Amino acid sequence: NVSSIFKFMSGEDYHIEALKNDNVYFSKFTDLNDPYEGLLHFSYKNVTDSIRMTLYANGLAKEGNISLSEGRKKAERLRQKEGIEKVREIVNEWTEIAFEDYRNFHLENRFVLSVAIQKEDDLFPAPLTSMMMWSHYAKGMRGLCVEFDYQKLLDSIQTLNELDVSTRLVSYSNKHLPRVCARTVIEDFIKDNGKAGLEMINAFCTKHSGWSYENELRFLGSKHGLVNYDTSAVKRIFVGHKNKALLQTVKEIVRSKNLNVPVYTVNIRPKTYGLGFVEAI
Predict the structure, then answer these.
(1) In this structure, how many other beta carbons lie within 10 angstroms of the beta carbon of residue 49?
(2) How far apart are CA 91 and CA 93, in angstroms?
(3) Is there a contact between 187 and 52 (Cβ–Cβ < 8 Å)?
(4) Does the first or last residue of the chain, that is N or C, have fewer Cβ atoms within 10 Å of its Cβ?
């Protein structure tokens, strides 16, 4: 049950404009900062020769506009003439082409808004208290973080932009790259069940465990660039203590828009590691 989500930003001019105009930005997967983003492992595990023969028969039927029974007969004739190795070669080639098509489609047509979800029931929950987040995404305490109500943000993005948006929690792993199974791609080709696309999206929402401090949630939509949200989705705004000019700008925006949301300065503590929060307005 996601309640609050947090968007950390470095405080560039375009972030200020987005705050003024009630916008968030959906990025391409290839523009995200993880060097492994969009890289997937393709696995032939559990792909039997029987499944390959079924796919080959289906492919021949579709390609030749013939019945499936005729496709099965043609597939069996090839197997008897040239052996199962030839069928494996053809089907593996088809499957790898289909995998690349699925992957490229989702990379080109799915866009992502990355946020961090509330990790604990606290007035100032992690990841808001994460020094890593303030360092990496808020320009070393010189940027800002906007806290949103998850459901209000999701609903208003969909309504105001007439946009279908799904959300996925990012999974973290320290083992292999996220995997898409050849068997899923093959069965999707045969049954057109949509499972290959779903498996692809889930793979795109898997990262190395070194990123787990982000506790990331991804909004996935079909529009690239700025989208609108309703102002009521904003709960609080936090500004790093090293940027007093940004704090003043944010306070002016809140007042000019008559936003009834608190603005906090985020400070480092004088004697112990940690962060402190002081309400500015």
Answers:
(1) 13
(2) 5
(3) no
(4) N
